[in-house]
Amino acid sequence: MGSRLQEATSRSDGVRSRARPKLSSVTNDVEAALYEVRRKIYPRSVHGKFASSRIALVILTQLIFYGLPWLSWNGRPAVLFELAQRKFYIFGLVFWPQDFIFLTALLVISAIALFLFTAIAGRLFCGYACPQTVYTEIFLWVERWIEGDHMKRARLDRQATDVRKVALKSATHAVWIAIALWTGFTFVGYFTPIHTLGVEALSWSLGQWETFWILFYAFATYGNAGWMREQVCKYMCPYARFQGVMVDSDTLVITYDRDRGEPRGSRSRSAAARAGGLGDCVNCNICVQVCPTGIDIRDGLQYECIGCGACIDGCNQVMDKMGYAPGLIRYSTENALKRGLGTSGIVRRILRVRTALYSVLFLAATAAFLTGLYLRSPIKVDVIRDRATLARETRDGLVENIFRLQIMNTGEVPRRFVVRATGLKDLAVAAKQPILVPAASTEAVVVALHVDPAVAKPGFHPIVLHVEDLDDPAIRADEKSKFYVR
Ligand code: SF4
Ligand code: SF4
User: Is the CB of 146 under 6 A from ligand 1?
Assistant: First the structure.
């Protein structure tokens, strides 16, 4: 499967193999491919279960993306990445730079999930949830709504400029720009409270960086979904290039059943299946017309295929009209086609060494992440010894060491902490206690430790500083340090 995809990749790159080619002809071929002018694609709209699934996912992902910044939690935005304060709020959780490990774990889990789902069913993410697919779909809805179906849009682009064309194109671009600006505004709303951002935008008092990022994100959305479209998937997305190593002969991919479809040919609707020695493909090209990347899946698996399933829906409609069984183009595997496996055979092969390994890694990483999150302490303490004076004598003849404690309350309620120290006999803490640390804040306090020189020999002694919540002793942090006696 991987090699088929690689073959397809090189074929689609336009570098075709020939017997003993002359150097000049090879150079011309490569130059032609490199400078090939883009042929605009006007995907035909299609209905079916894959189109419905994509619409449902577009709506779901955008409800989440556009809605989350407006949600409130404990009187603040439910999701807010406050870069200046270096605090990330996600519902009831507050993450600090010290929690970077959780972000790393999330990235690892996402990567394993991508490997797992790609090994099972190919480019599911690309076809249904990738922002490029989602925004291209939304922009296409606008285009269809204003300019008409794929035929009308193609005709409009070909015709000479007149008032109607200018009006339709202006309307399309105006709606695209409005969506793009709203998307940029929402994106920045994850980093600045969106209500504040809204007030600033309405009063034309946005900060420089906020303005820059809103416009930058809007420009990227408008450019990628309005103009670049399938070119992002074909030429810019690295995932398309390395997916070949993530799939195998048992991966579900969108496949044309060549044995059933060939020889292809047009025929009357009343013709029986296989009449005249023809296969089930009526060569109507609907599968090509609905394809957002403009490829013909009948040529085999190609790296441009984003796995959206539009060709399945399109072909099934044709099969239905012809009275043939659906599934000439369907989700299948290379092994299923080769060995004639049915659904149960395909499902049985989902669990194989590769997917089992990914599943174990995925479950282990997720379990570790959730356990870490559950056990995460709402208090973090850093202890720094006063380096200027290692030890000094108090008026009472005790040895004194000074420590600077950085107490971080990562929770959303203020806490009162007390400090104890152990490790030396009668080790006493001299500090103003309890120490009040407001919610999601850090407090730096100076703590003096005293010990009777009669009970400690000269030198460094290991000690432990215990910082406890006065109201909930289960919330505590123990930090090791050293006490010096001259
Ligand atoms: S939509 Fe189906 S029948 Fe029509 S050309 Fe494509 S594969 Fe053949
Ligand atoms: S070949 Fe089919 S699944 Fe692949 S991108 Fe085109 S329409 Fe979508």
Answer: no
251: Cβ contacts below 8 Å, ≥ 6 apart: 1, 118, 119, 120, 121, 122, 333, 334
> pLDDT by residue (tens digit) across 422-481?
999 989 999 888 999 998 899 999 999 999 989 888 999 999 999 999 999 999 999 999
User: Does ligand 2 lie within 6 Å of residue 288's CB atom?
Assistant: no
Three-class DSSP category at 474? coil
Ligand nearest to the CA of 266: 1
Of the chain, the end-to-end C-alpha distance in Å amounts to 73
Question: Strand runs (DSSP E) across 30-159, as ranges?
Answer: 72-73, 76-77, 79-82, 87-90, 93-95
Cα–Cα distance between 305 and 236 in angstroms, integer? 14
Is 254 in contact with 302 (CB distance < 8 Å)? no
Ligand minimally distant from the alpha carbon of residue 326: 1
Residue type present at position 99: D
d(CA 143, CA 55): 16
Identify which of 50, 137, 311, 328 to mutate to test ligand 2's pocket (most ligand atoms within 8 A of the CB).
Answer: 311
Compute, in angstroms, the gap from residue 329 CA to the centroid of ligand 1: 8
Could you report the per-residue pLDDT of 264-302, keeping only the tens digit for each? Answer: 999 888 777 777 889 999 999 999 999 999 999 999 988
Mutate to test the pocket of ligand 1, among 47, 256, 328 (most ligand atoms within 8 A of CB): 328
